[in-house]
Each structure stands twice: as structure tokens, then as C-alpha cells.
Design goal:
Helix content is about 45%, strand content about 10%. The protein is α/β, with parallel strands linked by helices. The strands form three sheets. The protein has a four-stranded parallel sheet with strand order 4-5-8-9, with helices on one face. It has a three-stranded parallel sheet with strand order 1-2-3. The protein has a two-stranded antiparallel sheet with strand order 6-7. Strand 2 (about 155-160), helix 9 and strand 3 form a beta-alpha-beta unit.
Length: about 475
């Protein structure tokens, strides 16, 4: 009699003890998802896109996979080039066995099982069968983008949107019967990218068009940005977001910022010091606006982007050539938070670091600006980008526990462009429950069912639901 081995992704995956299994299966697994930061293309949600094949749903635009494929010696034509969708998928299948101990191995097999019911390991010998079976599922009416989101019990999705976006697809969704709320997030990074004056000037012209304000000076520039901030709020936006190497070293005065704006508008070169002060002036204003509207501000700090200039010239930006920066972070961050706090204008905020050396500094920093009025007002965000794997997640959970209140943490997010990434919430929840369960069984935490249930529910769902105030949007 032959016995079949249990699948790699089995019901107790990552759950190494009985308490962990109970916490996950009885509590965490049933919590809805609030995905408060992602990069899903909202047009594809509004259009309820149906994918033609597994490549489109899974590999299109995924720089995590491209980096692994390049490291495996796969030619660029199979990553971003002109190979066919199936050829690219087969190249990925060749790479998957080489990703053991990389989080991609876990994510790949979680996603195959959760969306397609496929429990076999992906490798060259199973690739053809998996391609055909997944494509058959994707051809079904129940595999369009909206169904993929609802399948994972997602209550809210917050996309990432430029201030010049018309938000037409958000309005379409708001008027539809789609049960998941899809809300914009205000990402004004291009407002202060003075390192490329021609591109910046084009963007300012576009800002003037959508705001219907002729941007002839700095005051009108600020007025146009505020108009867009107001417009986003009216469309349900309750979060802003900034991707920065570091917080600015200083906040320029309005007069100095106006001079820098005038130079850049004329196409004149702006010094690094001028650009830094200009960034500080804008971030200070954005913080005040966010506070006034009750928004949550997100700061993503520490990425060094587009490192390989040869490939960036060939393929463009955001093609998998970004890395972890090692700049000093906390002094500039403290000055920025302190400047807003001094004016009683510090909004709710989530801080994300990319360099793990900043884990303890960030976990400690948030404790300096809690005001005793909003629980967990300043958050240290979940492991981001290179840190959103098992070890990085555990580092974040441990450091936050040791220096703050994990019980007030707003939990996981996908930060993804893929509609098949929602098992990352499951991944996080399993890791959380395993960590708690191990400490219960070691006698480090009480085996109190009500206490632990409340704790897990908060971190997986209820904290985020309360913190972002989505229920209060009309």
C-alpha cells in the first residue's frame, strides 16, 4: 500500500506547536484583511480584468522573481524581454527549485495552493501541468480581479496614487456593487524630485492642469497640491505615503522654498542642500494637512533605487535593481517628527525601515511621540520589501514587543502589484501565531485563551480597522 506524503503547504505550515495551531486555526485564519498599502493597478480592479494566463496574473511586473531569475543565470529576455508568456513561466519554474530558503519558495507554493488548489511543488517536471491547470482556473468567471480579492476576505484595499491622478477608477468602484472598498492613498513623491528638473517641470504642468490652477509661483504650487489633497480626501483617501532615502535634514522657510521652486521652474540646477530644504518644507506642510484631516502618514525610508544604471537605461526604473541603503536615519527623523509635534500638528504615522540595522532605532523612536490620546498613534510598520520574509517579520515583531506595544500594532500589508499576493497576510499570521505559541508553551506568556484571542484579533484585523477610521468615511 502506497502512502502519499502530505503536501509541502499543509494546514499546519509554519505552526510548530499546539498553541500556535489553535491560535491560527481558531482565531487568525478567520480575520478579514485590511490591505492598507499596496500597488495594485486600480484600473484592473475597476475593469475586473480576466487574466489570459498564469504569467499575466503572477509574473508580469514582479521584480522579486526577476531578481531571482537573473541570479539563477536566466537571460533577461525571459524576465522583462520578448520571450512568450509561457517561456517566461517555464524559466521561472526552472528557477523555483533554486529558491529554497528564499521567501519566494514559500510564497510561490502558498499562492499556487490558495488560488488554484495546486499542492505539487513547482519545478521543470511539473511546470507544464501546473501551467495548464492554473490557466483553466484563470479562464473561469470567478477568477477575475475582483473575485481574487474577495476570495481572500479583503475588506479594504488602499492603492498608491500620484496627486495628479484623476481617481476615475476609484470613483467607478465606489459607485459599483463591489463589496471591497478600494481607496486611494496620496503619494506626492514627484512634487520634490528636483534631481530631474525637466521631468519635474512636466509634472508641475500636469498638476496645474488637473487642479485648474496656473502654477506661476511657489504659492500657487502649494495651492494646487492642497487642492489635490482635498480632492483625494473627498474620494475617501485617509492615508498619505512617501518613499524617501532619509527624512530631510532641515525644513526650508517658505521664502527659501519659493526661491528653490523658482530656480527649478526655470530649469536651473538646484543644489543638494536646496533640494533637501525644499523637501523638508513640503513634508512639513503635508504633515500638517494630514493631521488636520485625520489621515495616517506613511514614511518608507532607506531604499537606494535604480543602482545598476546600465540596466536602468536599458529597461527603465523599477525593474529590480533597487537595494538597501545605509544612511543614518534617526536624527533627521526625530527632527521632522519633533517639528510637527511642536506645532501640535503631528499626524498618525507609520514608519518603515529597509535597513535591518534600523530596527531597534525605529522601534525606540516611535515611543518618543505617542501622545496618550490615540493608542499606537506612531507605528513602526511591518517588515518592508527585503524584510517581509519570515526572519524579517520575526525581527520586527520581537523588537516592537521589546520596546513598545505589539498589542497595538496595525499588522501586515501586501505592498504588492500582484493580485495573487494576499497569502502574505496568511504567512504573517502563521508566523505571529507560531511566535506566540512557542512562548506560551515555554511558560513566557500565560495560556489564557481570552487574552491571547484578543491579542491575535487585534494585530491581524481590529487595530487596523480602528486606526485608519475607514468606517467613518461617508
Amino acid at each position: 500500500m502506497h502512502t502519499h506524503p502530505s503536501p509541502f503547504i499543509h494546514e499546519d505550515f509554519l505552526l510548530g506547536n499546539q498553541t500556535a495551531r489553535r491560535l491560527y486555526h481558531d482565531v487568525a485564519a478567520h480575520q478579514p484583511i485590511i490591505d492598507y498599502h499596496c500597488h495594485l493597478p486600480v484600473a484592473e480592479i475597476a475593469g475586473n480584468r480576466q487574466f489570459n494566463n498564469l504569467f499575466e496574473a503572477w509574473l508580469e511586473g514582479d521584480h522579486y522573481k526577476w531578481r531571482a531569475m537573473r541570479a539563477n543565470g536566466i537571460a533577461e529576455r525571459f524576465c522583462t524581454g520578448d520571450a512568450s508568456p509561457k517561456e517566461k513561466f517555464l524559466a521561472w519554474a526552472d528557477t523555483v527549485p533554486m529558491t529554497l530558503r528564499n521567501p519566494l519558495y514559500h510564497w510561490t507554493h502558498l499562492e499556487l495552493q490558495r488560488y488554484f488548489g495546486i499542492s505539487e511543488l513547482l519545478n521543470p517536471s511539473t511546470a507544464e501541468s501546473i501551467w495548464d491547470r492554473a490557466n483553466a482556473v484563470l479562464a473561469e468567471e470567478g477568477s477575475r480581479t475582483q473575485s481574487l480579492i474577495r476570495k481572500m476576505q479583503v475588506e479594504v484595499v488602499c492603492t498608491t496614487d500620484d496627486p495628479t491622478d484623476t481617481l476615475e477608477f476609484h470613483r467607478t468602484l465606489a459607485a459599483s456593487n463591489f463589496q471591497t472598498r478600494v481607496l486611494p492613498a496620496f503619494r506626492p513623491d514627484r512634487a520634490y524630485m528636483l534631481d530631474d528638473c525637466p521631468a519635474w517641470n512636466q509634472w508641475v504642468d500636469r498638476l496645474g492642469e488637473v487642479s485648474k490652477i496656473s502654477i506661476t509661483d511657489y504659492d500657487r504650487f502649494i495651492a494646487a497640491l492642497q487642492q489635490r489633497h482635498d480632492f483625494f480626501h473627498a474620494q475617501g483617501c485617509r492615508l498619505s505615503d512617501h518613499g524617501l532615502q532619509t527624512c530631510p535634514q532641515r525644513i526650508a522657510s517658505p521664502e527659501e522654498a519659493a526661491q528653490t521652486f523658482s530656480k527649478a521652474r526655470k530649469g536651473e540646477a538646484v543644489t543638494l542642500e536646496e533640494a533637501d530644504g525644499f523637501l523638508g518644507a513640503l513634508l512639513f506642510l503635508f504633515g500638517k494637512w494630514d493631521h488636520a484631516k485625520g489621515w495616517v502618514k506613511q514614511l518608507h525610508l532607506g531604499a537606494i533605487r535604480n543602482v545598476n544604471m546600465q540596466y536602468v537605461r536599458l529597461l527603465g526604473k523599477d525593474t529590480g535593481f533597487d537595494s538597501i541603503g545605509d544612511w543614518p536615519q534617526v536624527e533627521a527623523l526625530a527632527r521632522y517628527l519633533g517639528a510637527l509635534d511642536a506645532e501640535n500638528a503631528l499626524p498618525k504615522m507609520i514608519l518603515y525601515n529597509l535597513n535591518p540595522a534600523d530596527n531597534y532605532p525605529f522601534a525606540a523612536m516611535i515611543g518618543n511621540f505617542q501622545n496618550g490620546e490615540i493608542a499606537g498613534k506612531i507605528q513602526w510598520g511591518s517588515g518592508w520589501w527585503f524584510l517581509d520574509q519570515k526572519e524579517g517579520i520575526e525581527w520586527q515583531l520581537n523588537a516592537l514587543s521589546h520596546l513598545g506595544l505589539l498589542s497595538r500594532f496595525v499588522g501586515m500589508l501586501t505592498d504588492s502589484r500582484s493580485f495573487l499576493s494576499y497569502p502574505r497576510h496568511e504567512y504573517f499570521r502563521r508566523i505571529l501565531c507560531n511566535l506566540l505559541g512557542a512562548e506560551v508553551e515555554a511558560g513566557l506568556l500565560p495560556d489564557d485563551k481570552d487574552l491571547l484571542t484578543d491579542y491575535v484579533e487585534r494585530i491581524c484585523y481590529r487595530n487596523a480597522k480602528a486606526y485608519f477610521g475607514f468606517d467613518q468615511i461617508g
